[in-house]
Write a structure and sequence with these properties.
Elements: H1 2-34, H2 38-50, H3 54-63, H4 74-83, H5 92-98, H6 107-117, E1 122-131, H7 132-146, E2 150-155, H8 162-176, E3 180-186, H9 198-203, E4 207-211, E5 231-234, E6 238-242, E7 260-261, E8 263-268, H10 271-287, E9 307-314, H11 322-333, E10 337-341, H12 349-360, E11 364-370, H13 376-384, H14 387-390, E12 395-399, E13 403-404, E14 408-411, E15 415-419, H15 425-430, E16 433-439, H16 441-456, E17 459-461, H17 463-467, H18 471-481
Parallel strand pairs: 2-3, 3-4, 7-13, 10-11, 11-12
Antiparallel strand pairs: 1-8, 1-9, 2-5, 5-6, 6-8, 9-16, 10-14, 12-17, 14-15, 15-16
Length: 487
């Protein structure tokens, strides 16, 4: 026994070193082959070798930022569903003729998005802004209560609070009427309130699934990749999308402890079919169940609305960088004005260059951010790089509370990009997001008016203020910025 123990004691350090070396070599090779950003590759390789085992484990958990989920012909099925749009399709050349003459240059953006998504731009849609939970939640619950055939709902955070209870009650009523209901909640977002409401939904008969749940499953390498989309589709005809989760803090009229503004949208017309297709894809990936049939995808009809629209799916799979490139495309076609509202502003070098180039061309670029952020570290990291956009003429506005969680972009008053994406690396590189491009002077004017109202009560940040921060604050902000991809 003593000889065996001595053998183990002598062999164990060598075995550990060999295993650690092998794992480091494999992880290093993966980082070199698959990391698009050379700086990120160098950082990960350094961590892998400087912290054996721990560095490799962190790389597996946080550094592998791609999901391969196109299986069983699923992508082809989804594309077939959204290709059957009847007379609604609008080519970029058609859009140039249908837009007012002063807006025709925006058709170049339609070509960009067509190439990015391979989805059709659809005419005949209605897109109505709904501000805060005070407007959005009653409209969504009313639509749920009128559902006759199907309800599909995808959300990042579904809190177990007063707002969540209202949605739970409405979904249960729908199930009892015989409506097919599917609710998909991100596994991390579901735990923002404890106990999670998802178990109550399931107990009440609502088909509920958690996106990428569990730490000891085959999905473990992707635990850092979250589903940040917000989609609600009723009977395949009425859609809701935007930036709003299900949380009591969004209902400002109830005077919540931590009030949070947000903007959501009600959509009617052919665009709802594309929303549904994105949900079906996420549901199939999570559960293995493929939703099909008229209850989910009724025969497409040409709507009566005046908005040309298209969904822009984005995520760490084949849709990687779609929203980032859409932002850059919109900045490239702008001629007069760009207005951006986002709660988290940590653009990468490419987006910073696009913003500055846009401003240097004489376009008025307004970036509207909350003065008090709900994520302090994000605000610090954002301030560390704010000089990079201020020095070339972009204007930054800091709004007073409540904290504004809205995500809006309006270009030249005729193009709007709405949805769930923030201007930060987590949103643009790690999360599954949903954008919707809209061509409409009426919608653009309405959103511009709302943004102007917020700018009217905001403080304009200056380069002198940013440069005037104390050295300790600058160091704090700069150190936090190094962790920007994971904030």
């Amino acid at each position: 026994m003593s000889s065996f123990t001595g053998f183990v004691e002598a062999f164990w350090p060598l075995a550990t070193a060999v295993v650690g070396f092998a794992l480091s070599v494999v992880a290093t090779g993966h980082a070199i082959l698959y990391k698009r950003d050379s700086r990120a590759a160098v950082a990960w390789v350094g961590l892998i070798w400087l912290a054996p085992f721990v560095g490799t484990l962190l790389y597996v958990l946080l550094g592998i930022n791609r999901v391969r989920r196109r299986v069983s012909g699923q992508r082809g099925h989804e594309r077939a569903l959204v290709r059957d749009v009847g007379p609604s399709e609008c080519l970029p050349s058609d859009l140039a003729l249908e837009l007012p003459s002063e807006m025709r240059h925006l058709s170049d953006m339609a070509q960009v998005a067509r190439s990015l998504t391979r989805l059709q731009l659809l005419r005949g849609n209605s897109v109505e802004p709904l501000f805060d939970g005070d407007q959005a939640y009653p409209a969504m619950i009313e639509a749920i209560d009128r559902a006759q055939r199907s309800i599909s709902m995808c959300v990042y955070i579904f809190d177990n609070d007063a707002a969540g209870q209202r949605f739970l009650d409405a979904l249960v009523r729908a199930v009892r009427r015989g409506v097919e209901v599917c609710v998909l909640v991100d596994a991390v977002g579901a735990r923002y309130s404890m106990p999670p409401i998802t178990s109550r939904l399931a107990d009440c008969g609502v088909r509920t699934a958690l996106f990428m749940s569990g730490l000891l499953t085959w999905r473990t390498p992707y635990l850092n990749l979250r589903n940040h989309r917000k989609i609600l589709v009723i009977d395949g005809r009425i859609g809701f999308a935007g930036g709003m989760n299900v949380r009591a803090c969004h209902v400002l009229g109830d005077n919540p402890a931590h009030p949070t503004r947000d903007t959501h949208f009600r959509l009617l017309g052919p665009i709802v079919r594309q929303l549904q297709a994105v949900f079906v894809e996420d549901w199939h990936f999570t559960t293995g169940e493929l939703l099909a049939g008229d209850q989910w995808f009724p025969r497409p009809e040409l709507g009566s609305g005046g908005v040309h629209a298209r969904v822009v799916p984005d995520g760490p799979d084949q849709d990687l960088d779609r929203m980032s490139m859409a932002f850059q495309g919109a900045l490239a076609v702008a001629r007069r004005s760009v207005r951006i509202v986002t709660p988290y502003f940590l653009p990468d070098r490419a987006l910073i260059s696009a913003l500055n180039t846009c401003a240097l061309r004489g376009v008025v670029v307004d970036i509207v951010l909350p003065r008090e952020n709900n994520l302090k570290m994000v605000a610090w990291a954002s301030m560390a790089q704010m000089w990079q956009v201020l020095e070339w003429g972009c204007r930054v506005w800091m709004t007073e509370g409540p904290f504004d969680h809205s995500k809006l972009m309006v270009v030249d008053g005729g193009f709007s990009l709405i949805g769930s994406s923030n201007w930060d690396p987590r949103s643009l590189r790690l999360n599954f997001e949903l954008g919707i491009e809209c061509y409409s002077t009426e919608l653009g004017t309405r959103l511009n008016d709302e943004i102007e109202r917020r700018m009217g009560g905001a403080h304009r940040l200056t380069l002198a203020e940013v440069n005037g921060r104390s050295l300790p604050v600058k160091l704090r902000d700069g150190i936090v910025r190094l962790a920007a991809p994971y904030l």
